[in-house]
């Protein structure tokens, strides 16, 4: 069984500043993957970034990067140079094997102009 | 648009009625997933298909729920005798799996169900 915990229901950040969203997880799988998905208001979820657990190097994708601490089972998302379009719900998720994803409850990010 | 599409986008029904949702995945994707998302929660897995075979069902999927994916293309999710607790956003996602590993799932816009 897998669980994902996002302890920050809401966060806010000033435009152009940096924000970090927290995520912890638990899994009994030895080979698993971690994801951050973004869900803008009334729009579909899109993948922001993914991390293979067997890789030590933290994934980066333009302004988005993760801090993956495998021993601590922590997977935080850092958004640099925040933009108004970053405002959304952010979901942390984990997947193993080849099918279902297990999601956290999400963090609502607001970007202040 | 070559993304995942879902129809209808919104459905309002009375308790006890049957409803059916449709999902059209990205054309070359062989895996299709259904999730349910209630207010303030993340999506919860319901079931998934590889081609036309339904390979896994969550315990959340009661006997009133049935899903099909004939010919490995589009999928339908039917809820019989709807209850107010079925009110939620139903999300469909698809992915293309080759070999091992967990591949990116592409999500549709969802069908929002309201049961009165």
Give the tags:
heterodimer; A: mainly beta; Immunoglobulin-like; six-stranded mixed beta sheet; 0% helix; B: 116 residues; four-stranded antiparallel beta sheet
Short account of what is shown:
By secondary structure, chain A is mainly beta. Chain A contains no helices and 12 strands.
Account of the protein in words:
The complex is a heterodimer of chains A (113) and B (116). Chain A has one domain (3-112): Sandwich (Immunoglobulin-like). In chain A, strands 2, 5, 6, 10, 11 and 12 form a 6-stranded mixed beta sheet that branches. In chain A, strands 3-9-8-7 form a 4-stranded antiparallel beta sheet, with no helix packed on it. Chain A has no helices and 12 strands. With 113 residues, chain A is mostly beta strands. The model of chain A has no long low-confidence stretch (mean pLDDT 94). In chain A, β5 (32-39) and β6 (46-52) form a beta hairpin. Chain B has 116 residues and is mainly β. Chain B is 0% helix and 48% strand. Chain B is built from no helices and 11 strands. In chain B, β5 (44-50) and β6 (53-57) form a beta hairpin. Chain B is globular. The model of chain B has no long low-confidence stretch (mean pLDDT 92). The A-B interface holds A 4, 32-33, 35, 37, 43-47, 50, 52, 91, 93, 95-106 and B 3-4, 31, 33, 40-45, 48, 55-56, 58, 91, 97, 100-102, 104-110.
What global shape of chain A is seen? Answer: globular
Radius of gyration of chain B: 14 Å
Q: Count the E strands of chain A.
A: 12
CATH class of chain A: Mainly Beta
Radius of gyration of chain A (CA) equals 13 Å
Task: Please state the oligomeric state of the protein chains shown.
Answer: heterodimer
């Amino acid at each position: 069984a897998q669980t994902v915990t996002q302890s920050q229901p809401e966060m806010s950040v000033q435009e152009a500043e940096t924000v970090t969203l927290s995520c912890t997880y638990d899994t009994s799988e030895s080979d698993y993957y971690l994801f951050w998905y973004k869900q803008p208001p009334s729009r579909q979820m899109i993948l922001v970034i993914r991390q293979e657990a067997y890789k030590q190097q933290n994934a980066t994708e333009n302004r988005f990067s993760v801090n993956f601490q495998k021993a601590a089972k922590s997977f935080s998302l850092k958004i640099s140079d925040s933009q108004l379009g970053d405002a959304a719900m952010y979901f942390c998720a984990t997947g193993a094997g080849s099918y279902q994803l297990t999601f956290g409850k999400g963090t609502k990010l607001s970007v202040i102009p | 648009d070559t993304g995942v599409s879902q129809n209808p986008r919104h459905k309002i029904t009375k308790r006890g009625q049957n409803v059916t949702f449709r999902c059209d995945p990205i054309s070359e994707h062989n895996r299709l997933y259904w999730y349910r998302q209630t207010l303030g929660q993340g999506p919860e897995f319901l079931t998934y298909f590889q081609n036309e075979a339904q390979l896994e069902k969550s315990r959340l999927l009661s006997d009133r729920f049935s899903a099909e994916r004939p010919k490995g293309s589009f999928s339908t999710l039917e809820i019989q005798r709807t209850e107010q607790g079925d009110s939620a956003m139903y999300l469909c996602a698809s992915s293309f799996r080759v070999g091992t590993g967990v591949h990116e799932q592409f999500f549709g816009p969802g069908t929002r169900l309201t049961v009165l």
